[in-house]
Amino acid sequence: MDFKIATLPGDGIGPEIVDQAIKVMNAVGEKYGHQFDFEFAPTGAAAIDAVGEPYPDSTHEVCMNADAVLFGAIGDPKYDNDPKAKVRPEQGLLLMRKKLGLYANIRPVATFPSLIDKSPLKNDRVEGADFVVVRELTGGIYFGDKGRSEDLNRAFDNCVYTKEEVERILKLAYDYAGKRNKRLTVVDKANVLSTSRLWREVAQEMEKDYADIETDYMFVDNAAMQLIQWPKKFDVMVTENMFGDILSDEASVITGSLGLLPSASVGVHTSVFEPIHGSYPQAAGKNIANPVATILSAAMLLESLNLLEEAKAVRDAVNASLDADFVTEDINKEAGKSTSEVGDWIAAKVKA
Ligand code: IPM
Ligand code: MN
Question: Any idea which ligand is nearest the CA of 74?
Answer without folding.
Answer: 1
